[in-house]
Design a protein that fits this description.
The structure holds two protein chains of two kinds. Chain A is mainly β. Classes of the chains: A mainly beta, B mainly beta.
């Protein structure tokens, strides 16, 4: 089956620093990828849609200057959390639809802890 | 704004019981409804439903969609402890495969 990877799987950083999370589709090309955030015991909240070759589309309430998204190639999207604060600590998950399928393949997630 | 509501939010059963999880939705330009199982990490895909009244089945799990009443159910028969997880319902509406998730149902199966 299709595989999506994320790196790193977990990261601890200090307040004020930036963290980059990578999402890769390993055996298919994805012109679109999605970034979600999940707080403990809550559901996945869509943050933004990453579009290859163009700007990302952010959901209402998500600061685009804080969560920088770059979809540099058909297999790679990156999310950079800039000037991280403790309230940014969360589980970040990316997903990508394979080809024309609605079914999305999720990455294993990245747990970010900001101290 | 698209909306997905799951019930119950949590459920505790004994091994061997049968459970029914519910998902209702309001979405513009409905395209599909998906069920996922989430344990420790990322969700794993269970079913995708696009047509009313057609049951999808995989082992002890089955699901059906009612597009007139805007809901879906996920059934698990003869539950096992390994079924313990959060079950997420998501609906795709609009363009570009964007999914709106419900809050999930936390299922705990006790031995």
């Amino acid at each position: 089956g299709a595989v999506v990877s994320q790196h790193p799987s977990w990261v601890i950083c200090k307040s004020g620093t930036s963290v980059k999370i990578e999402c890769r589709s390993l055996d298919f090309q994805a012109t679109t990828m999605f970034w979600y955030r999940q707080f403990p015991k809550q559901s996945l909240m869509l943050m933004a849609t990453s579009n290859e070759g163009s700007k990302a589309t952010y959901e209402q309430g998500v600061e685009k200057d804080k969560f920088l998204i770059n979809h540099a190639s058909l297999t790679l999207s990156t999310l950079t959390v800039t000037s991280a604060h403790p309230e940014d600590s969360s589980f970040y998950i990316c997903s990508a639809p394979k080809g024309g399928a609605v079914e999305q393949y999720f990455g294993p997630g990245t747990r970010l802890t900001v101290t | 704004e698209d909306k997905v509501v799951q019930s119950p939010l949590s459920l505790v059963v004994h091994e061997g019981d049968t459970v029914t999880l519910n998902c209702s939705y309001e979405v513009t330009n409905f395209r599909s409804l998906l069920w996922y199982k989430q344990e420790k990490k990322a969700p794993t895909f269970l079913f995708m439903l696009t047509s009313s009244g057609i049951e999808k089945k995989s082992g002890r799990l089955s699901s059906i969609l009612d597009k007139k009443e805007l809901f879906s159910i996920l059934n698990i028969t003869a539950t096992q402890t390994g079924d313990s997880a959060v079950y997420l319902c998501a609906v795709e509406g609009g363009s570009n495969y964007k999914l709106t998730f419900g809050k999930g149902t936390l299922l705990t199966v006790n031995p």
